[in-house]
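ESCALATION

Customer reports they have been waiting on this structure for their group meeting. Please prioritize. Original submission:
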Amino acid sequence: MKKKINFGIIGCGLMGREFASAAARWCHLKTELPAPRIIGVCDVNPDMTKWFSDNFSGIEYITNDYKELLQNPEIEAVYCAVPHNLQESIYIDIIKAGKHLLGEKPFGIDKKANRSILAEIKKRPDIVVRCSSEFPFYPGARLVYNWIEQNKFGRILEVKAGFNHSSDMDITKKINWKRQAKFNGEYGCMGDLGIHTLHIPFRAGWLPQNVCAKLSDIVKQRPDKDGNMQSCDTYDNATLICDVKDKDGSVFPMTLETKRMSPGSTNEWYIEVYGLDASAKFSTNDPNAFYFTQSWGKEQAWARIDLGYKPMFPAITGEIFEFGFTDSILQMWAAFISELAGEKPLFSCFTPEEAYYSHVLYDGALKAFHTKSIVSLTYTEG
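Update from on-call: job pushed to the front of the queue and completed.
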């Protein structure tokens, strides 16, 4: 019987349910990793916790007070998915309670909040703290990263990465906290979607030296649940253009997109790397495919291969089948659990330090947009 790690969940919405589903199918993995066991859940909305009690018999503790959950000595680790304005206080309390944490982006509503969280993390080196980011665990995304590590691209010419949605194209869609700056933060779509685009570039060491930004607040009002129009004051779309210095000292442009209003993009995450020796790209729009160039001197041709099911952590699914979103969630959680077990995965979850780098970038992007200039970026704290 595999060892168990007792988890609590704070914030029982969409991604909390995805974690619970992943925990329920831990037998899908062909590993000896400890299995997450969810024993406690917390949400201020009883309808959210009801789904857990209806579907998981092992849940022993249900509360609307997260501090009560943190006082439970049986809970060893916490998954926390709450609005950005609540992350600073709750994440800090989780860390102070001595619980391992997988939290949601952006790890604080702004750079000041993020610094406070990082300061608390530094006091507890015995605690594993990571940020949720599942898309790099797709086989095609990992292959792009592997090529970066193997220097297959040669000199980098350009990098493009993005995470785009289209549901906000419906201007009658009801407002929620992500469309209000007091809950979501001034970053807007960057804070909500940006970490997903940055995971592979940051892991490759590609930290932007500077940034210029185009931020668009397109829909100014949306109806609330009663049909009354409310101010929608966050940026819907963001395009950032940055200079990045590679390991060989060469500088290349990197374009980062985060959009809530992108026609045709139901849930489009992509990474594209263009180099002198080779180029490659992956998108969740074609999740089983890996695109790369083959060269004949001055001519290049794009080739496409079907990757099949090639996860980082082996699973029972046959290699001829397709890999999907729920598989990426399971793989991300396996990466986190492996770190709790003292192992070092081939590719790990987004780190608190990388989350800090993202805040430096977002903060710079806001300044660049407001001043209509290119803003230099510095990644030292303080």
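Sent to customer with the following note: The mean pLDDT is 96.
Escalation resolved.
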